[in-house]
Amino acid sequence: MSSEPSTPPVCVLGLGLIGGSLLRAAVATGRQAFGWNRSSQAVEGAVADGFDASTDLTATLRRAAENDALVVIAVPMPAVDGILAAIAEHAPDVTLTDVVSVKAQVAAAVAAHGLSRRFVGGHPMAGTAESGWTAGDADLFRDAVWVVTVDDGTDPEAWRQVAELALDCGSVVVPAESREHDAAVARISHLPHVLAEALALSGAEGGDLALGLAAGSFRDGTRVAATAPALVDAMCEGNAVALLDVLDETLRVLSAAREQLAAGSTSELTRAGHAARQRYEQRRRDPITGTQPGDEGWIETFREAGRKGRVWAR
Amino acid sequence: MSSEPSTPPVCVLGLGLIGGSLLRAAVATGRQAFGWNRSSQAVEGAVADGFDASTDLTATLRRAAENDALVVIAVPMPAVDGILAAIAEHAPDVTLTDVVSVKAQVAAAVAAHGLSRRFVGGHPMAGTAESGWTAGDADLFRDAVWVVTVDDGTDPEAWRQVAELALDCGSVVVPAESREHDAAVARISHLPHVLAEALALSGAEGGDLALGLAAGSFRDGTRVAATAPALVDAMCEGNAVALLDVLDETLRVLSAAREQLAAGSTSELTRAGHAARQRYEQRRRDPITGTQPGDEGWIETFREAGRKGRVWAR
Hints:
The structure is a homodimer. Chain A is α/β, with parallel strands linked by helices. The first copy, chain A, has helices spanning about 15-30, 40-50, 55-65, 75-90, 105-110, 155-170, 180-205, 205-215, 215-220, 230-240, 240-260, 265-280, 300-305; strands spanning about 10-15, 35, 55, 70-75, 95-100, 120-125, 145-150, 170-175. Chain A has 13 helices and eight strands. The two termini of chain A are about 20 Å apart. Chains A and B meet through α7, α8, α9, α10 and α11 of A and α7, α8, α9, α10 and α11 of B. Chains A, B: Its EC number is 1.3.1.12. Chains A, B: It comes from Rhodococcus sacchari.
């Protein structure tokens, strides 16, 4: 254990948009940081930009173990299992987090490899439509929300290390249980994409007349339909269980609104929707006070704070 | 008939946001223009701002008849029938248009009062969340799309007068049959509001955790849910028949996407939605050429041009 456990070196596995941005952001805060990527192209780009990066996973993980580094898994979900196998072999005792957009599936894979003891899940709610090392930006996480998971058995010291990294990157830290995180992002990130695709389809079904009349409400409502389909598929399919529940709920809401419109009124939908948007506009980010990671009952306290929209600050 | 039939005086009935903006815009283009409003508050505001306005409907309509004015109905749908009765009594031969957001219902009311001969429907796709005379703006219609209807029997000279007014106000003129207009705006104006309300509800149903994690996709997808519920109700309920068709179609699209997600993939939806959004982004406004209002077959030619997103220019 280092004598400064909250600022360990950072080892980033995967140097795409998120991982590459994280390597840059960690270095920008003055931390020691090094990265690995499977393809040599990203590594060559990182080295050319003055960063410490390698295509040798074994050597990178051994270095992480020797230096008590905080290891960040920043590869796409399909590659997570292979990375975990390598970690279990070469660096089984490191503090471990990830930046994948679903959390329960990652936590289950971590458990399957016997790595749960020092693992804390993470999800920075940041991104662009671009990808790869060259798309990275040290400021990508500034003012973003970064979820840090509080599951049963979460190690408080590991939690604090992950949260400190998020804060160092300029993010706001919201604690959440993995499954609750997945349900929440199905509502506010994956459903918006599904509805945007459906709205775009409806407009195009109306032909060039409808598209020619489209103004602000259509433009804003379909904006994220411009995202590359493969990215949207990866998000939605990776969180299918939670998204199916939310889609079923939305189908019920829209079917009820359809029946009410057929009976002459949309006011039940519009009043409730307006109140919901007002609640969103008026949301606050009060700090969590009075409880520190590791305090008696901190896991349930932090989960409940996250449910109230509270954030963890130093 | 005036010797300059395309620039007659303009008589605006109703001085709310749209009518008040139109009175200002008409005067700004150098036209003679005068208005009427039921409540004295708007009229006092208009007069104080230097405009020619009255609360006397009979006198206003007689003046319009004497001056061969283009009369613009700018009252909400529920008030249209009473206005048409007064026009039929005091100014049955004027050229007549409207700026109400649904077109088939207005055309039917006009026909019921025997006023179809010199009537051409209009819909400037412009507005703000505000209302009343004080919210008006002479530039409200600048660069907006203004639909001018081409229904069976439309008088070409009346059509040209209405289109010229729209062009004078800085708008782009798209010809459309009334029912096709209503079907199109159900897709690109009313459905976006319904989906935004449903998305806002889904976010709020996830509580402060979900709202606290919400980022750009939720913010943009729910923006129009901030519109006053009564305004959304008026739009949706006034176009219920067309909106019900579009809602049913969207429920089918979302149900199919739900089944495909349950089977493991969203790619059919995301590819089609992305292509639809691309088509929207690449839409063009080519001018209608070769046919003038009144030419043989002009009505079907103009409808077909509008279906292709073409616009009428002088």
